[in-house]
Write a structure and sequence with these properties.
N-terminal domain of MutM-like DNA repair proteins, four-stranded antiparallel sheet, alpha+beta, 10 strands, about 260 residues
């Protein structure tokens, strides 16, 4: 599932490929699940003739700033992604919206499982759902003091708090597990139980994991070999980390969680 690093990588690819370009045509399939508050046909028609000024992101949401409002906003859901290509026959399977730019460049938003969402809004950053998000760790990292105050008011397990998009925009399942592994903190600890030193470790883990994943464009093959990411998947009995630590799988905050009890306290 795309999380902050994957969506930021998509934003950067789009920024390099379409900013400054004019939209000459657009096409969308009829999909009342993916398109919200507007039909795909009407959204596509609203894009034609406009120029892309910038690509913005907060958390797992991404939107295009055009030379005229309204603007298209995207949530990737579980399987959403963008493809960038030149030839019409390269249009990917499961596409929902295709946009063609002057010069021939094309992009398509694809979503096989249809958990993504596309909206047309006057001001995406200040309208739901984006306006309801908490701080984005890459764009507006919390200070240690603010983070400690925030966690002190939360009795839920740390894993559940990290996944709360009204608190940490863009942190999803694998990022949360990696942060807690790096910070040596148990996912089942009540958030309010952390000491000042532990809050500091959590903040360091949050920032380092997000920044490193973004630095390598969310390419998991380039993640540090010591990361839990490479061995966390599934519920394989006897699974161990690259350090030889036994991995436990549990359900925390409604999500499958991988952690190492001997390391994370």
């Amino acid at each position: 599932m795309p999380e902050l690093p994957e969506v930021e990588a998509a934003r950067r690819r789009l920024e390099a490929g379409i900013v400054g370009r004019k939209i000459v045509s657009a096409e969308a399939i009829h999909d009342p699940v993916v398109f919200r508050g507007i039909t795909g046909r009407r959204l596509a028609a609203a894009l034609v003739g406009r120029r892309v000024k910038s690509i913005r992101r907060k958390g797992k949401h991404l939107w295009f700033e055009l030379d005229r409002r309204p603007w298209p906003a995207f949530h990737f859901g579980m399987t959403g992604s963008f493809a960038i290509y030149d030839a019409p026959d390269e249009r990917p399977r499961f596409w929902r919206l295709e946009v063609v730019f002057a010069g021939g460049t094309r992009i398509a938003f694809r979503d096989p499982r249809r958990f993504g969402r596309i909206r047309l809004q006057d001001d995406p950053a200040n309208e739901p759902p984006i306006s309801l998000l908490g701080a984005d760790p890459l764009l507006e990292p919390p200070s240690a003091r603010d983070l400690r105050g925030l966690l002190a008011r939360r009795r839920a397990p740390l894993k559940a708090v990290l996944l709360d998009q009204s608190v940490f925009a863009g942190v999803g399942n694998w990022v949360a597990d990696e942060i807690l592994y790096q910070a040596r903190l148990s996912p089942i600890r009540p958030a309010s139980s952390l000491t000042a030193a532990e809050v500091g470790r959590l903040r360091s883990g949050l920032l380092s994991v997000v920044k490193r994943a973004v630095l390598v464009e969310a390419d998991s093959d380039r993640f540090p070999r010591a990361w839990l990411f490479h061995t966390r998947w599934g519920r394989t009995a006897g699974a161990i980390t690259s350090r030889g630590e036994a991995i436990t799988h549990a359900t925390v905050g409604g999500r499958t969680t991988a952690w190492v009890p001997t390391r994370q306290k």
